[in-house]
Design goal:
The protein is mainly alpha-helical. 79% of the residues lie in helices and 0% in strands. It is globular, with a radius of gyration of 15 Å.
Length: 170
């Protein structure tokens, strides 16, 4: 049941329905208090909902269970922890290793793009986000991020085009 709730939450998160995703991640963690990926999902959705205190709290809970994860999950959780705690260079390192070992990991690509954007390297953020979109073209959050990076990079045609695609998807 916990894994089912986690899967539901991931689909909701991908669709940009953060409040609903947070509820499903929370239910997964309630069903299995050692489910680190559920805490990581709670951290990510809390960040998206503008609640950095809860994001950090949940990221720390996920890190407390990192020994129960696969190497791939460890990269993801550590990267999330570093972006949440504003250690952006370590964020880039973790997600770079993740995407080097697992190049088709669209979430890792999207999160790496976010780290670059937070470092104000918008051309690099756009490049990495474009890779994520090639892997998962219907991921609303990734497309929205790409549109935002394009705006910041003064690539206004791309910004508008991708923003319109986001509206079509959600």
């Amino acid at each position: 049941e916990a894994v089912h709730q986690y899967g539901v939450a991931m689909e909701l998160q991908s669709a940009g329905k953060m409040q609903e995703a947070l509820q499903s991640f929370s239910k997964a963690a309630e069903l299995d208090p050692n489910f680190a990926r559920a805490y990581a999902g709670m951290a990510a959705t809390s960040r998206s909902l503008g609640n950095p205190q809860n994001a950090e709290k949940y990221a720390k809970l996920a890190m407390a269970h990192v020994d129960r994860m696969t190497q791939r999950e460890r990269y993801r959780v550590r990267g999330l922890y570093y972006v949440t705690t504003e250690n952006l260079q370590k964020c880039v390192e973790e997600y770079s290793e993740l995407t080097k070992e697992y190049p088709a990991d669209d979430i890792g690509q999207n999160n790496l793009a976010n780290c670059y954007a937070r470092l104000l390297n918008m051309p690099r953020a756009m490049e990495v986000a474009q890779r994520a979109l090639q892997i998962a073209p219907k991921n609303v959050m990734t497309r929205m991020n790409f549109s935002l990076y394009a705006c910041y990079a003064t690539e206004f045609q791309s910004c508008e085009r991708e923003g319109r695609k986001v509206l079509e998807l959600n």
